[in-house]
């Protein structure tokens, strides 16, 4: 029995919580400083062979999934549960206590107290004081007590549960993280313009995971600084199910597309030495789009139309201007300069064309599915509520005992608060001054 009590006391210890939180903080710092989930060669090149081997033994490259880090989280969870079971009944007993049964002797011994004599009888004094308390937001109740009348009022008794709400919120956050780890995934895909995919590849194992729907990159656009560096870029994505469009959105960094719990983030891009060329006959409304390598021509079947890219100006790896060559049934060829992505109407030997050309890119998407994210949100919401209750609210109680003695009406006002006693002392003094008048 003593051994059982010792084990219980160990897990109920506040010292255990502090030590566990200390080690979690230290290890989290290590996991932030040391890059996670890199290849073994990266750690060897950076830290040396011996240190890299030590990292592998203690799972430092994947620390947040290591047995010892998960063990620390489990130890903290057990500590929170046992602490709550150990201490919550006492807090709940105070919340539900019959405060009108408080002995007069205890009220007389409280540090915060005020005594005075009322000019009214007991009944009228009680009515006057009750009305004054109600006016100041102190709803009260009364009872016959020790040859007199006892009024009691309190504020924020449930603030005593704030710390336990924080405990519950941490456990809920852990549950959400477990759900996300077990049933979610994180991956990426490099998706060329005009192409689509129904699967992505996980970061850790490069395993292919089916999405359950199709996502297509219709267009990738990039803005450049004068030195050729990327200023901003965006992707026009289309989600299809059964070859039908169900969602379309232009995504940029920090403004992703979410569909069926799967979120697509704009993360990178890759330029190609190919071009997306569109030629539309304005008369017949016939539109031709082709992906062409540099200096290769497209021959449209059953037509005399041919076109290709014969020259381009670049800034870094990105193309800024494109020279399009075009030849149609007239037998005459023409060359036309366009800015990358520009649409231009041209007259070519009596035929009006709308032409456009742009360098081809692949958009780099990061994909995440986390079915536990709403559980985590609930946990964080509860944590904020619990912290507000624990740190910014206190359980404040007031007793006023009214009795007749030697033909006089004596009034004793006492009060207590479980936190922020200095502020409550000012509140008590101001309220006592008011009710005494």
From TrEMBL:
Keyword Membrane: yes
Annotated ranges, domain ResB-like: 14-296, 357-428
Main location: membrane
GO cellular component: a single term: membrane
Top-rank lineage group of the source organism: Bacteria
TM stretches of this protein: 7-34, 67-85, 163-185, 374-393
Membrane topology: Multi-pass membrane protein
GO BP terms, alphabetized: cytochrome complex assembly
Localization (cell): Membrane
InterPro entries (alphabetical): Cyt_c_bgen_Ccs1/CcsB/ResB, ResB-like_domain
Alphabetical keyword list: Cytochrome c-type biogenesis, Membrane, Transmembrane, Transmembrane helix
PANTHER family on file: CYTOCHROME C BIOGENESIS PROTEIN CCS1, CHLOROPLASTIC
Name of the protein in its database record: Cytochrome c biogenesis protein ResB
Annotated organism of origin: Candidatus Desulfatifera sulfidica
